[in-house]
Design brief:
Layout: H1 11-31, H2 41-53, E1 62-63, H3 64-74, H4 80-90, E2 101-104, E3 122-125, H5 130-133, E4 143-145, E5 152-154, H6 163-166, E6 169-172, E7 177-180, H7 185-197, H8 203-209, E8 220-222, H9 225-233, E9 235-241, E10 243-248, E11 254-260, H10 267-279, E12 286-291, E13 300-304, H11 310-320, E14 324-330, E15 332-335, E16 340-343, H12 346-387, H13 389-398, H14 402-413, H15 417-425, H16 433-458, H17 460-478, E17 485-487, E18 504-510, E19 514-519, E20 533-534, E21 544-551, E22 555-560, E23 564-569, E24 583-584, E25 597-603, E26 610-615, E27 619-624, E28 636-637, E29 647-653, E30 658-663, E31 667-671, E32 686-687, E33 697-703, E34 708-713, E35 717-722, E36 736-737, E37 747-753, E38 758-763, E39 767-772, E40 786-787, E41 797-803, E42 815-816
Parallel strand pairs: 8-17
Antiparallel strand pairs: 1-3, 2-3, 4-5, 6-7, 8-9, 9-14, 10-11, 11-13, 12-13, 15-16, 18-19, 18-21, 19-24, 20-39, 22-23, 22-25, 23-28, 26-27, 26-29, 27-32, 30-31, 30-33, 31-36, 34-35, 34-37, 35-40, 38-39, 38-41, 41-42
Length: 820
């Protein structure tokens, strides 16, 4: 027995060398994607194996076990589970933005359920995956021997798709990791096309075209700072948030409904976590959590207790569960010769794709050119044969063997060996006249093709145009809408207001708290006494209470019966159709349980004016408008209320107008605003009108010279009276009569109007009517008025809104809130 040589080795250096070899193997051959096709080795082998076996998008599904076995036996000598797990992930639409494998059977779920065994599932290439493999048989990429030298596998795929960014990648190597988010195909194609035309483009320019990741599970990205950092440096962190809304349930309670989750969040575990937090009382107000997801989409319903505040519960869920997560972007991929791992910027990734496609197109063109030249060479020999057909036939007949015939043709006619062999293989039918013309036509086409291919190789710009053309075709064929929304961040650095047109809109709010926004011109102007048109479908016992016409970019202030104020932009109110009931306001502002909005106000800015507010018990208060400019998300104290009182009306004032207060029983008081000194936000105010028993304030306005006071009753009678008929008296008196009321009638609303005013009335049944003020008679204080609205049956008028049309100067109209 021969004894081996013992060689002393330093264990430290040996371990270092061995570990580095292992580390590089993991980095290059397992965990990190190639920047050119965006695939890890196992993914590339699966796709190529399916392509090589003919399992294309237009063929029948084949058992996954067959695919796994072929990949294992030919290219990937590892465990079958590693191959099948990779195959299953390529088929999962919640993991892949554009799945590369079309799976049939149970491939798992977003709840974390594992795929069925590979003997049960079937698969084939998806249509979009074939774009990664086209032209692989045209020497476009390098091939290498497999583990035992019995098979050749590609080192990279031709990759017409920018797959590295398209589907992203995640992997943990030794000492490094990659985490690249998926993106939208349309945006990537547009970005690469732009970069080809503008090679010096900056990340700031590219991010306008590719604004951020686009996850298959949609959701929201909060802010763009992390996206900019990742695209500029290759590393960044973004915050993902689930999409959720609040729905009204039975008995005055609300439900939170989650329809989209952050990327790679397990829905089942999220549901369990919510239940644990509710059980441990870490989040108050949750009664139950139900998963109502089905084929139509995700629907995770959090049932709330009756006294729960939906907005607070939702914020707590964002804080304590995976309804809000962070995604650490680390754009690490293998680049350059030797496939070195490098952190790449957005621009570098796009450039890597372009460079790879340039190389693929050049090699494909060279392959096609060689093939075309070879065909032209043969056709030239056939043309010589046809021109000398008699001599050719005689030469062949006089030759004793095929070999001598070939040599004689080469010697006598100056042909190459390939040409002479083609002549010997030529069938007799090619001697026909039409067949000869086909050879001439084919030769002309081949010569034209050769010139075209040579021009492509000589002109790099044409190669770039081919890349752009391919991207446009792919975008047209596979492109879809962005799923993930990118919300502006808290600093306002990314504002979506620049994209919102400043138009007149009508904001409607019902007693049950349903709010909606529409274009103000939805309702046509009618003559007085008209029936109106249906404005919205309300729930039983629900009624429209507040209307407001304003600019879409203005601030909305919501004042509630509890004396609080909330703020919202008009364009943040969801746009709805004319007959839609709208969205619960608790989706937009953090109202407390049982809190009702009693007044809405549109404020273009907060400079130099006052807010004048009144309560149902006749209190009046005046405060600087700027004190309400910084309203917190959970609201702000607007006025201190006495027990049992309700804040009802708020107006913006320059500080000089007289105050008008009208009661349900038809009394109106007018007094100077100076009688009410400015007070701080928490102040209660002072007495404005002296009310009789059972009476209450129904409207508060500011008097402007030359205008009228419009009064409408619940039964639709009304009039307008000159403000001059209302004497200025001291604050806290009883006022004077403003309208004679019919039996069982009461004042439903009031407004200060002029000759140009447009009026909108709403009834209990939700009927909306618009008319101009000149359709309404101008009468004295002591009259009963005329029919303005003709409500049917037991219907009655419940609200009104006044709009002043824009004049030629372009100034915005003055808006008066309903009933004040």
């Amino acid at each position: 027995m021969e004894i081996g040589i013992v060689r002393p080795v330093n264990i430290t250096s040996e371990m270092r060398t061995a570990y580095l070899s292992y580390a590089m193997s993991v980095i290059v051959s397992r965990a990190l994607p190639d920047a050119r096709d965006g695939l890890k080795p196992v993914q590339r082998r699966i796709l190529y194996g399916m392509w090589d076996m003919g399992f294309r998008a237009n063929t029948a599904y084949k058992k996954s076990a067959r695919i796994v076995g072929d990949v294992l036996g030919k290219m990937h000598p590892h465990g079958d589970s590693s191959v099948y797990d990779a195959l299953a992930r390529l088929a999962q639409p919640w993991n892949m933005r554009y799945p590369l494998i079309d799976g049939q059977g149970n491939f798992g779920s977003v709840d974390g359920d594992p795929p069925a065994a590979m003997r049960y599932t079937e698969a084939r290439l998806s249509t979009i995956a074939e774009e990664l493999l086209f032209d692989i048989d045209k020497n476009t990429v390098d091939f290498r021997d497999n583990f035992d030298g019995s098979y050749r596998e590609p080192t990279v795929l031709p990759g017409m798709l920018p797959n590295l960014l398209l589907n992203g990648a995640a992997g943990i190597a030794v000492g490094m990791a990659t985490n690249i988010p998926p993106h939208n195909l349309v945006e990537l194609c547009d970005g690469i096309i732009y970069l080809i035309d503008n090679p010096e483009a900056t990340v700031e320019e590219l991010i306008k075209i590719i604004p951020g990741p686009d996850f298959p599970t949609a959701g929201n990205i909060l802010g763009a700072d992390g996206i900019m950092a990742a695209y500029s440096t290759g590393r960044g962190q973004i915050t993902l948030r689930a999409k959720a809304h609040i729905e009204e349930a039975n008995r005055g309670a609300f439900n939170i409904v989650v329809t989209e989750l952050p990327y790679q969040v397990n829905k089942a575990r999220l549901q369990e976590r919510m239940a644990e937090l509710a059980k441990d009382r870490k989040i108050e107000g949750i009664r139950d959590v139900r998963d109502e997801s089905d084929r139509s989409g995700m629907r995770l319903v959090i049932l709330l207790k009756q006294d729960a505040q939906p907005k607070k519960v939702l914020n707590a869920l964002y804080k304590h569960t995976q309804m809000q997560t962070t995604f650490g972007i680390n754009m690490l991929a293998l680049v350059e010769e030797g496939r070195q791992p490098k952190v790449l910027t957005l621009k570098r990734m796009l450039q890597e794709h372009v460079a790879h496609r340039q190389n693929v197109i050049r090699r494909r063109t060279e392959f096609d050119l060689d093939k075309a030249r070879a065909r032209a060479h043969i056709l030239e020999g056939l043309k010589i044969a046809l021109d000398n057909i008699d001599a050719i036939i005689r030469t062949i007949r006089e030759s004793r063997t095929v070999e001598s015939a070939r040599n004689n043709l080469i010697r006598n006619f100056g042909l190459s060996e390939i040409q002479s062999q083609a002549i010997l293989d030529m069938q007799l039918r090619r001697l026909a006249a039409l067949e000869r013309k086909k050879i001439d036509d084919e030769y002309a086409e081949v010569i034209k093709l050769i010139a075209e291919l040579e021009d492509i190789l000589a002109n790099p710009r044409r190669v770039l145009h081919i890349i752009q053309s391919d991207l446009r075709r792919i975008k047209e064929k596979y492109g879809d809408e962005r799923r993930t929304r990118i919300a502006p961040d808290a600093t306002g650095e990314v504002s979506d207001e620049d994209l919102i047109p400043d138009i007149r809109v009508l904001i409607t709010l019902t007693d049950r708290g349903y709010i909606k926004r529409q274009a103000a011109d939805v309702y046509r102007t009618q003559r007085r006494g008209g029936r109106g048109i249906k404005g919205m479908i309300t729930r039983e016992q629900d009624l429209v209470r507040h209307l407001l016409t304003c600019g879409s970019l203005e601030n909305l202030l919501f004042f509630t019966d509890k004396g609080k104020v909330y703020q919202l932009k008009a364009h943040e109110v969801p746009d709805s159709s004319r007959t839609a009931k709208g969205l619960p306001l608790v989706n937009l502002i953090s109202l407390e349980p049982g809190e009702q909005v009693t007044s809405m106000l549109a404020v273009p800015d907060y400079d130099g004016e006052y807010l004048v507010m009144a309560t149902q018990r006749g209190k009046i208060k005046r405060t600087k408008l700027e004190e309400y400019s910084q309203v917190r998300s959970n609201g702000l104290i607007a006025i201190g209320l006495e027990e049992g009182d309700v804040l009802g009306w708020v107006n913006v004032s320059n500080g000089d107008e007289d105050v008008l207060m009208t009661t349900v029983n038809g009394q109106t008081i007018r007094f100077k605003q100076g009688d009410v000194r400015p007070m701080g936000r928490p102040a209660t105010g002072v007495n404005g009108v002296n009310l009789s028993d059972g009476d209450r304030v129904i409207g508060m306005h500011l008097a402007t010279p030359g205008d009228d006071l419009l009064v409408i009753t619940a039964r639709g009678f009304g009039k307008r009276t000159k403000l001059d008929e209302y004497p200025t008296k001291g604050r806290a008196t009883g006022g004077v009569i403003t309208i004679k009321l019919r039996p069982e009638d009461s004042v439903a609303g009031t407004a200060v109007v002029n000759d140009r005013s447009l009026l909108t009335f709403v009834t209990l049944a939700g009927v909306v009517m618009r008319t101009s003020v000149d359709e309404i008679s101008q009468l004295g204080r002591l009259t009963q008025g005329v029919t303005i609205v003709n409500p049917s049956g037991k219907d009655r008028v419940v609200a009104l809104s006044v709009e002043e049309p824009e004049d030629d100067s372009g100034e915005s109209p003055t808006i008066i809130s309903p009933n004040g």
